[in-house]
């Protein structure tokens, strides 16, 4: 039985694969969210992201750069730090395919 994807992710990690914040680059994996027990198809990669507490910001693909900049400013002004790589999330049921969320990790749990 094929299960439908729950949601679409642009999952990011630092270059070491430890999901730390990016420095000069990192790893990006476009994929779908599935149940933890799901088996990956042959030649696919499966990432299991560690638990974080996130600041989640709604934006669009057109405003992503501005949203990143605004969030860095907000977090800095409020003495909050990014403790992991930012994740992109897009619902498969969104009415506007340009809408997405950016998940800024502020605490590892």
Q: Could you explain how this protein is built, in words?
A:
The protein is of the alpha+beta class. It has one helix spanning 64-77; strands at 8-13, 27-32, 52-60, 87-90, 99-108. A five-stranded antiparallel beta sheet has the order 2-1-4-5-3, with helices on one face. The mean pLDDT is 87.
List the helices and strands and how they pair.
Elements: E1 8-13, E2 27-32, E3 52-60, H1 64-77, E4 87-90, E5 99-108
Please give a quick description of this structure.
This protein is α+β, with helices and mostly antiparallel strands.
Key terms:
alpha+beta, 5-stranded antiparallel β-sheet, 109 residues
Mean pLDDT: 87
Rg over C-alpha atoms, rounded to the nearest angstrom: 15 Å
Binned, the helix content reads 10-25%
Query: What's the SSE pattern?
Result: EEEHEE
Q: Into which percentage range does the β-strand content fall?
A: 25-35%
- Which regions contain 5 or more consecutive residues with pLDDT less than 50? none
């Amino acid at each position: 039985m094929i299960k439908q994807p729950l949601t679409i992710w642009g999952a990011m990690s630092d270059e070491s694969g430890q999901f730390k914040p990016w420095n000069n680059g990192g790893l990006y994996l476009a994929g779908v969210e599935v149940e933890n027990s799901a088996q990956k198809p042959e030649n696919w990669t499966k990432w299991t992201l560690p638990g974080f507490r996130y600041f989640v910001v709604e934006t669009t693909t057109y405003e992503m750069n501005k949203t990143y900049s605004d969030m860095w400013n907000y977090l800095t002004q409020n003495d909050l730090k990014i403790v992991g790589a930012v994740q992109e999330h897009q619902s498969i049921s969104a009415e506007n395919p340009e809408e997405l969320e950016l998940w800024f990790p502020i605490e590892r749990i």
